[in-house]
Amino acid sequence: MKNETYFRTKFEELFREHFTGLCYFARKYTGDPDSSKEIVHTVFLRIWESRAEFEWDLPAKSYLFTSVYNRSMNYIRDNKKFISHDEAARHKLVVDDSLFSDNLETAELECRIKLALQKLPERCREVFELSRFEGKKYAEIAEQLNISVKTVETQMSKALGILKAELKDYLTAVILILLLNMHHG
Amino acid sequence: MLPKVFSGEATPEENKLVDQWISADPANREEFDSFARLWNLTGKAAGTGDIDLESEWRIMESAIAPVRAKTFTVAAIIRIAASVLLIAALAFTGLKISGTKTDRAPAVNLAAVTLPDGSVVTLNAGSKIMYKKSFGISNRDLHLRGEAYFEVNRDAGLPFVVETDETSVQVTGTKFNMKAYKHAAVIRVTVTEGAVRFFVKGQPVKETMLLAGETGIYDPSGNTMNKSGKENPNILSWKTRVMEFYNTPLAEVTEVLMNTYHVPLEIDPALQQCTVTVRFENQELDSILNVLKSTLDLTITKKGKHFAITGKGC
Fold it and tell me: Which of B228, B261, B287 corresponds to the end of one domain?
């Protein structure tokens, strides 16, 4: 018997599994983290409101991404005049159905990488992000965090070791894609 | 040594060593390539911003909590929470705020906003307006979701334009109320002073000029534009908390009350056509409900945040 507890459990599972990826996905279209979250929250709210009819046993991924896509399109339509010209040009490039699956894949990938980063010990992650995302020199990082350059090096190796283990599926997947592309080429 | 090579920290000697190591064995090359892929992959996560799944889930949890709030309240909770997060994120990353400005009223309270051109907008609870930073300089365009009362400063050179998803209102200086809730059946514009041009975007035929006391009603489902000259004394009740009813059906009374007090009222269908004649001025909802209760012999039960109105009928 499907009762509120059942819906609640299923709903939370679905939310936790897809929320982050869907936000990244919406961001590809809206360009705005705040509105993207709002869009994804609304999609989940609608599911909750129709929980009695929702097909909980079917895979929901494509339904979710399509709903978020449609709402992102509405968002762009509604807010068009509030986007500056260069931004508008950028949006125009992105608003293209053929990019749907690309954007979906990228969003999921970003999500996986984020999750992998969260697996790093705090100091290790800090060192890695300063180097990889902010392009800081090892010496600068060492000074900022008040550690030795040697420690920065150790932490970087450690970080990449963990990331490699966490993302190994994607590293092989990339090889497959490369091979496929070569055949097509 | 590979992290050093990729982060550009390796010395020329170290780079050379790595080169030799790569050429020494195909397995080494493979390892190098795999590392390069990992390096590129991690770069994709730059600037994606952190999403705190736990706090997002808590927002959702409160939105779906069994005590059902009205839909717009739920949406408002999310919007407020999202904007708090956004502000936190902006403060954290030091990012520049984009060219759009949004003013919102909280879920249960009104908000008065003075626009850059000196015009004053009163927002009903849960409503919001959005406008560009250039507002008041090169344009006076804004977007409304929900309900608001506009007191527009006269400026013949820069028309004041309020847009919703479907319609536009254009004025040079005047006072009017606009009700454009996202899921409401119709969009209403009521003029209290001056004149207003109310039209459907991209459809010049669907246009009406409204004068003080008149209401324009646009129905998106039938794409019809109507004008009503009938004065409705309760258009601004949400703002003034003054309500006047003359043989008004209870269904309409509860609608005005909900729009003013932002508390869901559920009314027994049998009572909808019962009429009341009464005037309220600046009263709390409880005392209004008490008056209705004794006048029409109703039973009013409080269920969490909302009230159920039942009775024998008229």
Answer: B228
